[in-house]
Write a structure and sequence with these properties.
SH3 type barrels; actin-binding; alpha+beta
């Protein structure tokens, strides 16, 4: 009985020791597990902190990059706006300057026009042109007056002595308009001479008188003051000699003018040609090769090369 009790006591002691060992082992395992858990949590915390720090750093860098990008874009936008504003301002100033310059030029042009209108002299009225415009070569103008036209005149001379019919024929006298002045002159000879008037050919003769300054009809000229025609064939021959002398005088004058380089004149006013026989020039133009064929109208060469008539009182002869 005692052995059994000892056995059970020993068993109880061993059981208690085993239970204590189990408790110690469990506590040790528990402590080990707790330590590992703490270490794991600490590592995880460190890892999370490291991740957070990295993430925060990346976020900060990204924010900084975004700020830098936004700042750079803002600066570029401001620079572009400043450049556009400067370009617009420059364009506006240039446009304003051009407008001011154009206005100044327009005002200056208007002032010059007004000044030109105020200062520009009024051109004089040109004298009446000769009815027969002279050509550069006057020889063909003399040809229409051949002597045969006047040869039959001596034949009708005896007719007025016996026939009074010529008296009503002086009515056509208005045709030679330049001749009315000599009519008042008292001449006893005109009465037998009205007979030649029916011939129309002598009409160019007054024009030749104007062109070559042939003396007016009167005593000693061989022409009837009332009719303007030749009295006799001898008088006609004398007048033809005058025409020949006029041609020689004109040829001599043209030769002398050509040898001297030609008469030149400066235009005082502007003149527009009325037809192709006249020339056109502006104030200040130089007219060359001038031929002073008439007191009121001369011939000359314009700056454009055309040659023709122009009023003499529109130019000033150059020395």
């Amino acid at each position: 009985m005692a052995k059994r009790n000892q056995f059970w006591s020993q068993r109880e002691t061993e059981e208690a020791s085993r239970q204590e060992d189990e408790v110690k082992q469990k506590e040790t395992q528990k402590e080990e597990a707790e330590r590992k858990r703490k270490e794991r949590e600490l590592q995880e915390a460190k890892k999370r902190e490291e991740q957070f720090r990295v993430r925060s750093k990346s976020i900060e860098e990204k924010r900084k990059q975004d700020r830098d990008t936004a700042q750079r874009q803002e600066e570029e936008r401001k620079e572009k706006e400043a450049a556009r504003a400067q370009a617009y301002t420059k364009e506006y100033e240039d446009e304003k300057a051009r407008s001011a310059a154009a206005g100044g030029r327009r005002q200056e042009a208007e002032e010059m026009i007004r000044a030109g209108k105020a200062v520009r002299p009024i051109p004089p009225v040109p004298q009446a042109r000769p009815r027969h415009e002279p050509e550069p070569e006057p020889e063909p103008e003399i040809e229409p007056e051949p002597e045969p036209r006047y040869e039959p005149e001596p034949e009708p001379e005896p007719e007025p002595r016996y026939e009074p019919e010529p008296e009503p024929e002086p009515e056509p006298e208005p045709e030679p308009e330049p001749e009315p002045e000599p009519e008042p002159e008292p001449e006893p000879e005109p009465e037998p001479e009205p007979e030649p008037e029916p011939e129309p050919e002598p009409e160019p003769e007054p024009e030749q008188d104007n062109e070559y300054d042939v003396p007016e009809s009167g005593p000693g000229t061989g022409r009837d003051p009332s009719t303007g025609y030749y009295d006799t064939a001898a008088d006609q021959q004398d007048d033809d000699n005058l025409y020949d002398n006029a041609d020689a005088i004109i040829d001599t004058a043209q030769t002398e003018s050509t040898e001297d380089g030609g008469v030149r004149a400066q235009a005082l006013y502007d003149y527009q040609a009325a037809d192709d026989t006249e020339i056109t020039f502006d104030p200040g133009d130089i007219i060359t090769e001038i031929n002073q064929i008439d007191p009121g109208w001369w011939q000359g060469r314009a700056p454009d090369g055309s040659y023709g008539l122009f009023p003499a009182n529109y130019v000033e002869v150059l020395e």
